[in-house]
# Entry
Amino acid sequence: MQTREWILTLAVIVIPLIIAVVVTLWSLEQVRYRPKKRRPANVAANGRDESDRGGSEPVERVE
# Structure
């Protein structure tokens, strides 16, 4: 390969790859430092939230 081909290869493949790695590492760092959302006290007390119910209505027992 000639020098010009190496430079084009570097410009097309390696530089975008480096940029992608830097952006990914930066975004992971931002997520690590983001404050966690606090759950309401009543949800934390019983350990369940609305998503645990599965969206179904309570079933009445008939004896």
